[in-house]
Design a protein that fits this description.
Blueprint (H helix, E strand, L loop, with lengths): L3 E5 L6 H11 L6 E5 L26 E2 L12 H17 L3 E5 L3 H8 L9 H14 L1 H11 L1 H6 L5 H14 L16 E7 L2 H16 L3 H10 L14 H8 L5 H24 L5 E4 L12 H17 L3
Parallel strand pairs: 1-4, 1-5, 2-3, 2-4, 5-6
Helix pairs in contact: 1-12, 2-3, 4-5, 4-7, 5-7, 8-11, 9-10, 10-11
């Protein structure tokens, strides 16, 4: 039985590269389609700062859930769940295999697990947002830590949006936000692969990528997105890289400062992603032996691809 494949892991580990390589071994573009599970890559024209794979480098594979939102739109995991699940069903109805690829852990689980997302209450949310503005995010985080410590452990004390959402869910449903996350159980049989590089090498890759983004057109891309309404975007304007680029455009940061701030924020993101994925017992971790400078030795991608392919074939052989 051909199973779905999920390729996950922290940022800057080469997930998109592995997905393409696996896709070639599993039948090529005629037999495989790819579904994005990176929240920032949902946005049109947010390309450089999200490390989105350019169209010409997608090797002919159809990609879903890329470029589906404008920068004015809010990224909403419940809406993503509906659309991405429809994509997965359509792919399989065409007799093809789906490869899910991305590092946004909740978005991945939204389409692999039986997650139900509670609705919103505009009045409750407005009150919480006003409190956050006057009391500060940390005060609300402390409230969350007292009532739902499991959620507080997963949410940064400065992440106002997620703190407000967790408190809103608790008030609307009468249950802690952490109770909405079920056990790690696939709704459709899936083989879960996760890339794991040495941490020092991952940090080097993140630092190099942040520099390359800022010296490779991120400021120009951000200036263009401002014309499209980036500043009004509730989630896009806060995306790592774009928030720092806006600071440069506003004169609040120099370009080198913004590149370093982006690298630092991305390293923290990688730490959160690693903690998130470590909790998932379904993951098959594949070590990627990046060198200390973040580069790959000759033949390493071939070895990693072969290891991933063996896992997929073994999973397919289980009824």
């Amino acid at each position: 039985m051909r199973k779905r494949v999920a390729v996950v892991g922290p940022t800057a580990t080469g997930k998109s590269d592995l997905a393409l390589r696996l896709g070639e071994h599993l039948g090529g573009p005629d037999m495989v389609e790819i579904v994005n599970a990176d929240a920032s890559q949902l946005y049109k024209r947010m390309d450089i700062g999200t490390a989105k794979l350019p169209t010409g480098q997608r090797c002919g594979f159809t990609h879903h859930q890329l470029d589906v939102l404008t920068v004015r739109d809010e990224a909403n995991v419940a809406a993503y769940q509906r659309h991405a699940r429809n994509d997965l069903e359509s792919i399989e109805n065409r007799g093809k295999r789906a490869i899910i690829v991305g590092g946004s852990g909740l978005y991945v689980r939204a389409i692999t697990d039986a997650l139900d997302f509670p609705g919103t209450d505009p009045t409750v949310r407005a009150v919480l947002e006003e409190r956050a503005q006057h009391e500060g995010a940390h005060a609300l985080w402390e409230e969350l830590a007292a009532t739902d410590p499991a959620s507080a452990k997963r949410i940064e004390p400065a992440n106002t949006r997620k703190i407000v959402r967790a408190l809103e869910v608790a008030q609307v449903t009468g249950r802690p936000f952490s109770a909405t996350l079920p056990a790690y159980t696939d709704i459709v049989p899936t083989i879960h692969l996760a890339l794991r590089p040495p941490r020092a090498a991952l940090n080097a890759r993140i630092n190099t990528r942040a520099q390359a983004m800022f010296y490779g057109g991120l400021l120009e891309e951000t200036a263009d997105l401002v014309e499209q309404g980036l500043r009004e975007g509730p989630t896009s304007s806060r995306a790592i890289g774009y928030a720092q680029a806006l600071a440069v455009l506003d004169g609040a940061m120099s370009l080198p400062e913004a590149a370093e701030a982006t690298a630092g924020a991305t390293r923290k993101l990688a730490s959160r992603q690693i903690k998130w994925f470590r909790r998932d017992p379904r993951l098959n971790w594949i070590d990627v032996n990046f060198q200390e400078d973040g580069t790959l030795p000759a033949g390493e991608w071939e070895r990693v691809t072969e290891a991933a392919l063996v896992l997929v074939q073994a999973a397919d052989s289980v009824a």
